[in-house]
Structure prediction request, 556 residues.
Amino acid sequence: MSWKIKEKYRKILASETGAISKNPGGKLMVCLVYPNHYSVGMSNLGLQAIYAQLNSYNDLLCERAFLPDSMELQEYRKSAGRLLSLESQRPLADFDIVAFSVSFESDYLNIPAIFDLSAIQPFSADRDETSPLVIAGGAALTLNPEPVADFMDIVCIGEGEPILPFLIDLLRTETVLERQGLLEKAAQIPGIYVPALYDVSYDKSSGALFVPLRGAPKQVQRVWLKDLDQQTASSVLLTPDTEFSDMYLIELSRGCPHGCRFCAAGFIYLPYRQRSLELLMGEVAKGLQSRQKIGLVGAAISDYSRIGELSCHILECGGKVSVSSLRVDGLNEEMIEVLRKSGHRTIALAPEGGSQRLRDLIKKDVSTPQILAACDRLIGRGILNLKLYFIIGLPTESVSDLEEMVTLVRLIRERVIDAARGQKRLGEVILSINPFIPKPSTPFQWCGMEEIKSLERKVRYLQETLGSLSNVRLKAESLRDAYMQALLSRGDRRLSRLLLKMAELGTLKRAARELAIDTDYTVCRDIPRDEPLPWDIIESGCRERLLSEYRAAFGG
Prediction:
């Protein structure tokens, strides 16, 4: 066991505020694992909320573990040591439960490394009574748990807060049950998916077929927290070693009332819910004791019904407001002034579709005049750096759609340059170009992702027409990373073996070839709407709405 790793972990703990330390004696021991680096995991409010909830039980101890960075990994390999928890530096294999929190599909890639470093068998079927029970939850698994289903004993579908009390009660009281009996009982809890209790088969003509075994439900219900005021709304742990080190994060709401047809947040977090202003003001008071900047978190910040009151309250208390991005149609003068006074030099807007036709297709419901008016309001208040999010490769996108995007960006650039010249300052338009990735539980789940070569041509076109312009900076997401995300979003249970083979061989192409898996078939094809989907094991309650929105987008 490397003393360098232990010393590093102790320094991390010493720099944190809010970590919980308990005597393990007689307690159910849980290690909460975020399968990415510490700085990424500690930026995640979901991880912090579950950490606080688990540690609220007197007879339960919850510690954390993360994917080691390159230095740690080198030390682990050199010392032949096992992956340790942060708080007590205890090997993961010594815990009763190892619980993964996974927000993004790309983090599925790191799960085999966690198992390997922990000396825990990756496949649930190969683990015995002496192994930790492996549980997982988070947004990625609620969308589609199948790519990692063979790794997990239990998967929490939906929001963890209302599921955990029932699951923890079972784990605390049924200590005499063998693992099989425990899993069968767990499967009866709403929101609990036990992959081993389903016989799954696949056919190119009929899709994924699930047969429940030993009393497991035909579908697993997605569970959600009805009253957000009942649970943690803000940062529990503060650390300088994270992207948001200067902020105290507060979650305003969950879900999104708009239902853009490509976006999962408007569907897997239904219904849209808000926290009360009174609770949030209390969280602001708490946060300002340690940080001056309050980061407001939610998929639809500007839709929070009392966003103006809350933002002004933060300023009146001596704080500053930070938001990741705002809807074009939610950007009013009051909000702009709050952001200006908070020191924002760059504001992010998300037109998403490059043309009006595409914005209508995806149900973005903002027009070109609205986009330009929002930019004019920001520029008029002295905010001269505008970040614009666009999606390329949306279904039916054509060259004319891209040309319209170029025209829109040029119009915005002209406004920025004119204002910057008048104020003798620099201004910039930052373009974030992201390929369309079909997501489960959205109306576009049946649409394939555009082929990489076609997307590469579109990126080159935008680089040639916009990338060389002064005051414009274009950043395109890695198309290979997007392809992998689409594969993990749409894939089935057979991808568990692919993930292990990738960890062994190092590349997707080599691993897929060795296992004879056609990844293009999963990523790029349009799926017939009557074909059973891998994620149909989840009862989300909105299939008819998805079909209706699909027909509204494409007609028939």
